[in-house]
Amino acid sequence: MPDKISIPVECKLSSAEQSRSMDSNTINEFGIDGFTLMELAASSAAEQIKKLQGTGKSGLFICGKGNNAGDALAAARYLINDTRHNATFFFVLGDDDLSPDAGTNLSLLHKLKNFGADIEFIKDLQDLDEQEFDYVIDGIFGTGLNSDLRGNLPNIVQRINSFSKPVYSMDIPSGLHADTGQILGSCIKADYTFTFGSNKIGLHWKDSRKYTGEVVFCNLPFPSTYREWDAVLINQKLVNSIPVIERTARHKYDGGVVHIMAGSEGLTGAAMMAAKSAWKQGAGAVFLYAPKALLPTYESTLPNIIKIGVGNDSDTIFKKKHAEIIKRNIHNKQGVLLAGPGIGRSSDTGACLVSVLKEQEGPTILDADALSFWENIESSDIPMAQKRKWLLTPHIGEATNYLGAEFKNDYERFKWAQNFSNQSKVSLLIKGNPTFVSLRDGNNFITGYDTFIFSRAGFGDVLSGALAANISISQNVELATVSSLYSAYRRSQEFGESESFGPEHLL
Ligand SMILES: NC(=O)C1=CN([C@@H]2O[C@H](COP(=O)(O)OP(=O)(O)OC[C@H]3O[C@@H](n4cnc5c(N)ncnc54)[C@H](O)[C@@H]3O)[C@@H](O)[C@H]2O)[C@@H](O)CC1
Ligand SMILES: [K+]
């Protein structure tokens, strides 16, 4: 397996600042001028619009004053010249003082008009009849938007949103913050967003999807040395570009050993789900540690799992004195440790877990109830080299209750995950819609699809089992995380709407 996964450029998600710095480095250091970049952005947007609209259509182009307007004006020129479209232009803030490249593009349109092209400039949207155009281009603001829309702008946006015709946004729906996805006063609701050069991170938060419509990435020739990104989008494109995780070892203990500390009285279901999932995912050997009183429950339901009873016949939870036998077995058969599903929150269980973690050298996943012991784990002086190999997998409630998380929106949740991971020196996967991953020795990831369906109980246990198996087989946490998350989604997509999809369908 490769050390690092190869990431398609359109899956690299950048902030507005990163996008601006890629633009300016390509222009000022590398030497492709801004007008050329705009030309490339506009011609790919026009190509997309041609595919969607066909020839001989009428476009309404709504422009601001910056380079975002420049993109719209240049795209209009391609559509007029190559696709016999006619165009109506409205400058929401007037057409004086345009950015230099937008100004040049406006003057080119005036020349086309003189050549006889069907071009009109209007001063007001109020009198415009919707029947006069087939689509709307939003070139009001892109990454340069720096405050709330004020004055007449929210009314204009509202009027555009009231049209029944498709709206295509240049780079970003005007009004959406390119990083946080916050609505700055008012925002265009696009059917498609053509994002240029870098895929903007703010287009991919859950609430942004209502405004972006479908996001189409239009590449620009930024040298890869200048590429900067905050996160990677998990989608089919990414998955197509990475290897499939396969176990090649011949012996069950060579590659793919998973140790699971899970389950307590009344919570054995979570342990079963996690163990079954690790097995289904192809682990060579799965050990499930169980307080002895629970063993009979597992005997009949988990035929493929190696069950190791700890304590005595009356024990229904893990206790500190059980740690030795677990540590000995892990030491003999090195692999990934998964701790937490249904393990309960008794302090004796926490002490057992801390004792095991102190000696566990391999990759470790802390999930569910294991996270309730985080304070104890943090204060137990486990060396950084061991912690670097840990992946914590809280859902939002667990992050808030046990890990001290505070956030008001997806963007803050993403930033919190990054900070937590940096400060605690561990990797973190925070479940939610989207789900975020922040890896110590790898990228940050964001799911590029609706994960709502995975909020039901049981999916977390299945995910942690799959993660443990995939990490143990591939020894590559990036690959394992992307594969585990996306394969569950792909399986959910195979189900028709008539059937209700549950965690059991992943086993
Ligand atoms: N050469 C480049 O740098 C490229 C830029 N591109 C396009 O350029 C865009 C960025 O262009 P700009 O940096 O010129 O910025 P924008 O075109 O997004 O907007 C900047 C203009 O809007 C004004 N403005 C900002 N916030 C406002 C508010 N709340 N109310 C009223 N006016 C406001 C600013 O004063 C400025 O005049 C990108 O999003 C992309 O569409 C692309 O053409 C690719 C190449
Ligand atoms: K825009």
TrEMBL record:
Keywords: ATP-binding, Isomerase, Lyase, Metal-binding, Multifunctional enzyme, NAD, NADP, Nucleotide-binding, Potassium. Its cofactor is K(+). K(+) binds at N68, D138, S174. InterPro entries: Carbohydrate_kinase_pred_CS, CARKD, Nnr, Ribokinase-like, YjeF_N_dom, YjeF_N_dom_sf. It comes from the Bacteria. It catalyses: (6S)-NADHX + ADP = AMP + phosphate + NADH + H(+); (6R)-NADHX = (6S)-NADHX; (6R)-NADPHX = (6S)-NADPHX; (6S)-NADPHX + ADP = AMP + phosphate + NADPH + H(+). Residues 19-228 form the YjeF N-terminal domain. Residues 235-507 form the YjeF C-terminal domain. Gene3D superfamilies: 3.40.1190.20, YjeF N-terminal domain. GO terms for molecular function: NAD(P)HX epimerase activity. Its EC number is 5.1.99.6. The keyword Nucleotide-binding applies. (6S)-NADPHX binds at G142, T143, G144, L145, N146, S147, D148, D171. The keyword Metal-binding applies. Binds 1 potassium ion per subunit. In the C-terminal section; belongs to the NnrD/CARKD family. In the N-terminal section; belongs to the NnrE/AIBP family. PANTHER family: ATP-DEPENDENT (S)-NAD(P)H-HYDRATE DEHYDRATASE, ATP-DEPENDENT (S)-NAD(P)H-HYDRATE DEHYDRATASE FAMILY MEMBER. Bifunctional enzyme that catalyzes the epimerization of the S- and R-forms of NAD(P)HX and the dehydration of the S-form of NAD(P)HX at the expense of ADP, which is converted to AMP. This allows the repair of both epimers of NAD(P)HX, a damaged form of NAD(P)H that is a result of enzymatic or heat-dependent hydration. Catalyzes the epimerization of the S- and R-forms of NAD(P)HX, a damaged form of NAD(P)H that is a result of enzymatic or heat-dependent hydration. This is a prerequisite for the S-specific NAD(P)H-hydrate dehydratase to allow the repair of both epimers of NAD(P)HX. This is NAD(P)H-hydrate epimerase. It comes from Rhodohalobacter sulfatireducens.
